[in-house]
């Protein structure tokens, strides 16, 4: 973090980050949220490992932990050792994480995920093709158990199959509740299934799930209805990444698309809306910051009355300033939470941050995962 305070020794006012915040029915003691981050360290069947329990417990001083993206079905899986929530074993694993976080005074919501076309038949049950709104392949290659392979042309979901996907989200949300977590976040970002439906580069359907913006947004709202049949909506958040181009997934008119989606989300009493700012869209793979893109949280603020969390390229001072201005209500930190398990305390006391080691983001094992030090061991 290029941090003015640690460089100059001048501590700017960060108090805005330490005011409690109600995200619907979830009360945060501070506004420093851990962003959802896939770290690929669950067991091969998607059941959380003991390493996962330690990792989340170490970071429990966050105002809120948002879990790594968690697959609601085998069909929704596209990466080895990503975590899941479609079996009793997944519930048992996640309840260990929830218990450990709660025992350390924290709160955790689960990010519900379906990768859509960002998968491969070798990762799917019975060697089936990955699914998507339309039969359009992503460019490039995906890592499979037998090496890198070109992305395949996905199977376009039928309307009946879409109903099955919605039911998978409902069951995932129910299982997250049975695991004792504090809420759920619907992942509608970063080029995965729900965003593939939203964006016109990936959705060429002509039925009620394609064409108009309202139709392309239908699956998101079907999923939200299903999730909110299980959870009080005041414990449900949604993540969007307007202007993202991740995984070749983009829209010809992102401002119109997202204004529509955000205005409709505003008619519900959700816990929060979470924007992944496009300037740091490639954070999982690179450190570059995209210049000349909108600050979407600021753009959407007037459309959305409930709390907004923003993520992407913040440091302690820019985060505190944006919260103090009221542009956003909380900041989610990703990469700096990887290497600073006690990030809130470091920000509060203007301590230097430990730099992260990108080579261990998805590498598996304890290194670069649970071995970053706290200021005070414990
Ligand atoms: C290792 C890594 C894994 C990520 N995995 C996810 C994920 O599972 N779900 C998601 O919505 N975003 C994911 N992201 C994006 C982060 O949530 C966050 O938006 C991004 O890192 C920008 O924030 P930062 O600049 O504070 O790092 C990931 C980012 C990183 C670095």
Explain how this protein is built.
The protein is 29% helix and 16% strand. With 378 residues, it is α/β, with parallel strands linked by helices. It has one domain (4-360): Alpha-Beta Barrel (TIM Barrel), CATH 3.20.20.70. The strands form four sheets. The protein has an eight-stranded parallel β-barrel with strand order 3-4-6-11-12-13-14-15, surrounded by four helices. A two-stranded antiparallel ribbon has the order 1-2. It has a two-stranded parallel sheet with strand order 7-10. The protein binds flavin mononucleotide (FMN). Flavin mononucleotide is lined by residues 35-38, 68-69, 111, 187, 189-190, 239, 276, 280, 283-284, 311-314, 333-336, 361.
